[in-house]
């Protein structure tokens, strides 16, 4: 697994969702902002307690989660 030192999971913060450095800023929020056209500079302006590396690592984490792998299935083992 790739190391994500800025991504934290705490059951007491945002219900255990992936967050930035233990803050109440979910990785999904950052990814959504970028997906909707916000630049790193605009995100930091809106959330001044974030750092550019937080945004970069949130995107890296999302990409890591989205990696696809193909696992061949034994079709003979599946009941008809």
In a few lines, what is going on in this structure?
The protein contains 3 helices and 2 strands; from the N terminus they run ββααα. The chain is mainly alpha-helical and 80 residues long. Strands 1-2 form a two-stranded antiparallel sheet.
Task: Give structural notes.
The protein is elongated, with a radius of gyration of 17 Å. It has a two-stranded antiparallel ribbon. By secondary structure, the chain is mainly alpha-helical. The model has no long low-confidence stretch (mean pLDDT 90). The protein has one domain (7-67): Winged helix-like DNA-binding domain superfamily/Winged helix DNA-binding domain (Arc Repressor Mutant, subunit A, Orthogonal Bundle). The N and C termini lie far apart (37 Å). 39% of the residues lie in helices and 5% in strands. The relative contact order is 0.17. It contains 3 helices and 2 strands; from the N terminus they run ββααα.
Set down the secondary structure blueprint.
Layout: E1 7-8, E2 19-20, H1 27-35, H2 40-46, H3 52-66
Antiparallel strand pairs: 1-2
Helix pairs in contact: 1-3
